[in-house]
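Reproducibility note. Readers wishing to regenerate the assembly model reported in the main text can use the exact inputs given here. Chain order matters: entities are listed in the order in which they were concatenated for prediction.
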Amino acid sequence: MKKKLPLFALFLFFFSLLLFCHSSLAFESDELLVDDEEFGLEGGSKPQIKPHEPAPTRSTTTTTRRKVSDQDSDSKIQFSLEHAFGDSDFVPAGTFSARLKTSSHGGQTLTKLRFSRNAFTGEDKEKFEKLLQDDDFYRIRLPSNTVSPPGRDYIISSVKARCLPREGLDEHFVIHMEGVNILAVNYGAFGACSYPRQLKLPHKWSFNSHTVLKNSEQAPRAPIFAEEVLGENGEGEIIPPPERSFWAKYWMYLIPLGLIVINAVTQAMNMPEEGVQGGGQTQQSAAAIQRGPGSAVRRR
Amino acid sequence: MAIRFIILTLLFLSSCTIPSLSLYEDQVGLMDWHQQYIGKVKHAVFHTQKTGRKRVVVSTEENVIASLDLRHGEIFWRHVLGINDVVDGIDIALGKYVITLSSDGSTLRAWNLPDGQMVWESFLRGSKHSKPLLLVPTNLKVDKDSLILVSSKGCLHAVSSIDGEILWTRDFAAESVEVQQVIQLDESDQIYVVGYAGSSQFHAYQINAMNGELLNHETAAFSGGFVGDVALVSSDTLVTLDTTRSILVTVSFKNRKIAFQETHLSNLGEDSSGMVEILPSSLTGMFTVKINNYKLFIRLTSEDKLEVVHKVDHETVVSDALVFSEGKEAFAVVEHGGSKVDITVKPGQDWNNNLVQESIEMDHQRGLVHKVFINNYLRTDRSHGFRALIVMEDHSLLLVQQGKIVWNREDALASIIDVTTSELPVEKEGVSVAKVEHSLFEWLKGHMLKLKGTLMLASPEDVAAIQAIRLKSSEKSKMTRDHNGFRKLLIVLTKARKIFALHSGDGRVVWSLLLHKSEACDSPTELNLYQWQTPHHHAMDENPSVLVVGRCGVSSKAPAILSFVDTYTGKELNSFDLVHSAVQVMPLPFTDSTEQRLHLLVDDDRRIHLYPKTSEAISIFQQEFSNIYWYSVEADNGIIKGHAVKSKCAGEVLDDFCFETRVLWSIIFPMESEKIIAAVSRKQNEVVHTQAKVTSEQDVMYKYISKNLLFVATVAPKASGHIGSADPDEAWLVVYLIDTITGRILHRMTHHGAQGPVHAVLSENWVVYHYFNLRAHRYEMSVTEIYDQSRAENKDVLKLVLGKHNLTAPVSSYSRPEITTKSQTYFFTHSVKAVAVTSTAKGITSKQLLIGTIGDQVLALDKRFLDPRRSINPTQAEKEEGIIPLADSLPIIPQSYVTHSLKVEGLRGILTVPAKLESTTLVFAYGVDLFYTRLAPSRTYDSLTEDFSYALLLLTIVALVAAIFVTWVLSEKKELREKWR
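Running the prediction on these inputs yields the following structure tokens for the assembly.
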């Protein structure tokens, strides 16, 4: 409840904003709307919508609604979700409703998508259980055109039925839109569905639906900075190569030198052992080290 | 001490020499080879004047114009015209220019005969399509110029042969006349142009060729109507067919009068039912009619009557008439008789007389004779000799002279459709290579030759033979498998329905096979090659084989044909004519006990058929029944669908190997805004070494690696034409990455102002694609990489130790993927013909993109340049990781051309095959030419280079050992001295 209040307030705010916009009739943003809004809706059994609501009534409602809202540039539309169990025929399973927004240059986009799902009947439940038993597909379809359904054809998507049951039945729609056309719908479990899929019956036979509307992203432009670089160094000045470190420059001399030193040291270390036995060893060796490579050379 | 120092530095220096990535001049040809072809010859022009006596100029179906050496068949010069620049006719003008008419009669070019330089080029305009005709009259000369007459696009043009200037043009399209023939009247500067208006009105124009002035125009209607080609029988008579195709119509237009004469085919004693057509020919007083399966030679007698001269089966081929010495004519007839081919040269108009009759033995792998061209020469005894250039069914080109094949060219290799590779036989221990290649006798002979060679007794032929043997037994061209996997057989399928096995070492043809043509199928076309059987662990005794899928006819609904070919022997093991079609062929990742790979064929009713049809295969298939998914891309409809197997086919005939499928998902692109232009998936046999990618911040990113990724590119329908046909505002390119199991769109991105053609390559977790940016007026290449976020938490070492990670959990497409994508775009200078990526045995070696450029070269570009993580100022850590500072365009380094100075003309495809050595990949680029090389994208880090000096290494070791001894002895002596002191 706590959560809903700010949401409601937000809606109110937006609505007033919208009203304001229309009264002034001044500015309409041509900004590309990236509708990545996510609506976590408590779908399922809404008492007022009966399961298997006859299609004609729904279509009439849409037309009237469109008529009403003709004068504002956005109108409400509805389109239905249909489902099939395994290879059965498709039957209506729910309704999507959204606002159709017409931008000034004629492009139409859908926003504020809402979804209400019809509750499972007993028959549906049986069929779904059968699917779970067989690890078969639960299939859904949407019209490819939301304004004049079904458009060219229906968009089909399917999921292994065993992926859906969790607490209730969790489903997740990602609807890819292009204007008023639906390109594709990705339908599946909300989370993971690991293989091998376990048979698990849901506790609650109601759907927990999440829907996301997605439009295409803009590709990043190729970086253009060749002109700048040319402008800066237009006089053809040559950029000096970065200064290399001492080691990078002289390693080829340093390594042999190091080897010689090591050699000399080892020689020097050996010498006292064979030379004087007993006292004065430390002094001599220290002296040898002090004398450094020079002595080594002499010894050779 | 000094010695040790010197040796040490020597050793150090020798280890420092870094092998260079590019080739040195003297390394060219060591591990690469290049072969040049021309394709199936369409027209050939011999020339008998000084400049071109030893040459023949040919044009081919691959749109190549080439000048060949008549003695050896080598290419003097060659030009590959574009794909859309189809050659319509060639001829020689002024004795020094080769004239070509191409692009449906709209481009006329002249090439210098000796060196192939282009002299001039003219574009001929016209309004209507018509049959392109090229006529180079021999006697229409004005000063030193001579005229070229071209009829194309409804117009007749006269073009100067010196500079290609259009002297005059006459439009016939305005009178809606379709020009059929342009005829030169003997010894005058008048020409006849004949044509139809509609199908029944015959027009004959008499034109002054010098200025285009119309001298006379006659027209007459023929109630029967005309159809098909016309055959010119004499300069004022031609023969054609009426619309019923049962009556031969002789049209004579002499003395400004047009007369028709009808001869019913049945009057000639022939059954006219079936397909009747007149074949284009240029024999005087005679023409050829093809009826069903046989050909009729019909002569026009002096009383304008038609009479059948000869009747042959349809395999017989006739050449055009050749004029030799004082207006005498001759033509060649080629007939098949068993394994032999009979060539007879007959004088014009006299069928029963033979000038030359020769019979040559012909390899049956060459199929039938398709075309013959003849040429005459003066023999040493001053009599006339004839040579014939023969084009065979397998697209090979032969020159026959004095009953012998002087040379042949395997020009089918210019039209490769598909390529696959096969391993060579394993070298058996104890048995010499001789067992595979030679018989014992040949082996002995080889040794005798070598002995002769060492004793300096060999004749020049022997020396050549020894050289050949040496080449054969040299390491790179052996017929056995090698340790590094460099030697392979490239199995190529060509448009000629001929399969070749090329040795990867030197590119020679090991075997070739013209696929068997069944009775049921008249015009089979071949489509693809698949590896059918690759013996591996067990079934080592079996030879590997390939599956050739073809279809009977052109449409995709035509029934499929399967052939199985042994890759060691080149024998066709089996061949089936199927009842169903094959729209799609899917090799499955399962093999049966004899290592035969299971294949699924999808027919046009979306049913799938399992091959091989064995009970073992079906039992393997049943186990994986529910895990088999496939997708189809209907580019014309803009629909992509995913399918799964449903049940066995329910038909009248019970077929255990046929399965019904159902649609699981669909993606429908709106027709008005998107059109599919490219769909690319990952190579099925690609190996990825690791999923993890460690970044510079000691962080791990997990690549999203799925075998079921599909890259799809769509463009605005308006912008689907050629570049420049659409404004940047109405052009866009949308790219998708789709999971083909669930139909989930993983990534979707729009490039505004961009258009195709799109060339893409998908590998590991990245896709690279090439397209044109209309706003920037440049080509661009974009890269997109996908990373898996669901595994991103596995960074904790403690978690890994305790096993609380999900790295070993199986991945399911039904899980909601948590992915991130990274993209970056770069400019690229070239337009591209093909893109491929190197593949190595274990996938450890870094990748290179192989880009077939518009200049028909292959450029190797490091994938590092196409890294979306490139930034303008990479941090020190990023630099160490190998990230290159961001630039706006991709560098083209001349040394990184894989093809170095060579060109693979007409480049169509690039194939990369991993060698057994991880660092190395084998690259085969094909088009009209073939090119093969070996690449090491990260240098050969796992083997010593070939030029590594083992001698120096040995010398160093020996010197070191010696030095140790010397110093040891010295120190012993010194010690002794010290002790004595």
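We highlight two features of this model. The two ends of chain A are 94 Å apart (CA to CA). Chain A touches chain B through 57 residues (CB under 8 Å).
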